[in-house]
Amino acid sequence: MTYLESLNYINNNLTSGSVYGLSRIKELLKRLDNPQKCMSIIHIAGTNGKGSISRMIMSILKAAGYTVGIFNSPYLEKKNEYLCVNGVDATDDEYALIAGIAKRAVEGVPMEEKPTEFEFSFAMAMEYFARKNCDFAIVECGLGGLTDATNIFDEKELSIIANIGLDHTKLLGDTIKDIAKQKCGIIIKNDTVIAYPSDIDAIKTIKRVCKSKNAKLITPDYIEFGTMSYYNPGFPDNDPVLENEKVWLNMPLITSSIALKGSFQKRNGMVALAAVMELASKGFKITYNNIINGLKNVTWPGRFETLCKEPLIIADGGHNLQCAKALCDSLDSEGISKAIFVIGIMADKDYKDVFRQLYPYTAKVVATEPANPRRLNTEEICKCFSELSNSDDLIIDDKSHRLLDMDIYAEKTPADAVKAALKLDRECYNNKMPIIITGSLYMMSEIRRAVLV
After folding, report:
1. Which residues contact 77 (CB under 8 A, 6 or more apart)?
2. Does the structure show a pLDDT above 80 at 113?
3. Closest to 318 in 3D by CA, of 366, 350, 272
4. What are the φ/ψ torsions at residue 71 (nearest 5 degrees)?
5. How far apart are CA 153 and CA 176, in angstroms?
6. 117 vs 9: CA distance, rounded Å
7. pTM of the entire predicted model
8. What is the mean pLDDT of the segment spanning 56-78?
């Protein structure tokens, strides 16, 4: 099967959409001789930050000499990104080979119900990682945790619960507590759990589930007080991992070594650090220098990524209110009080709350539409910002002012939206106004091509 044939098969011959149940993926993995059992598993769920945390862990483990497979979603450029080892995606030929193997597993003895595209891609990743002799597989949940297709592991080294917020409420629940229950579905008996310092209701839920599963819980934290920082490793006082004083005494240097931009990445970094230190306590060889080098070299496109410095263009695939707040915090830390925003977002998100959060930072807005059937149309984006600019009850902080004469533009494609933003920057601000591109990861591929190529 060629690469194009494999894509055609995946796009047209599998069960469409997201379908409840784990029977299909378990059967497919069984037919592949359960490749996931050949490596140590790090399983990660959460609303935001999963990809950043997993990429930091991968980079550190790679620096320590391990071979690490990583399954992140969604992909930005090509489906090959699902098959990633040590930061290198599978070639087209490798992808086609693994797709052919998975296809034969599905169709050799026809399955009662074919897997979904996500399940098929996940099974491909496990098969690919096994064939690449991976020491570790870092697996990111697609949606939720309890019923997610990745929730099939009987044994693993770690479970990680990243930041939990209100997203996918129609599927996961209307409250943080309900969503946390879904995310905690990945926790197994006698597990080791690293938890991001989320909302108090989320942490209470995580603690309760860990207690019921006899799971060890580690909750690291990072807080800034002006020029001062507070570091909490999260380990119990009697934990042997604390004997590695060099790591904990050099926490400021470690967090400042993180190559990923955005103030929120230091908290993500603390979670990644706690994870690798727990692995070290289990006997895996990970040194202080591995940690520093891993964090210095980590990359994760589309997450507060600087695409251009003159003029300054930053792309951040934040897709919900929690992401929007994190973006604003990062803009504050970078000294950016106003910017031209290019915004494209999905219609099933709480987009009005996102726009309200971003509004005080907007000098001008260029609305656009990601190439996804769930996209919000540009007319609605323009309408929302127009309403914000004329709202009598809008609360504006002291860094902003009412934008009664705010310019709002619309371009149907993300590439054209970038061109429009660059033209506005050149004509109105002499290329001195930052351009922030945000709203959805689904348009980041086109955005990156428009800026970088």
Report:
1. 445, 448
2. yes
3. 350
4. -115, 100
5. 25
6. 10
7. 0.90
8. 95
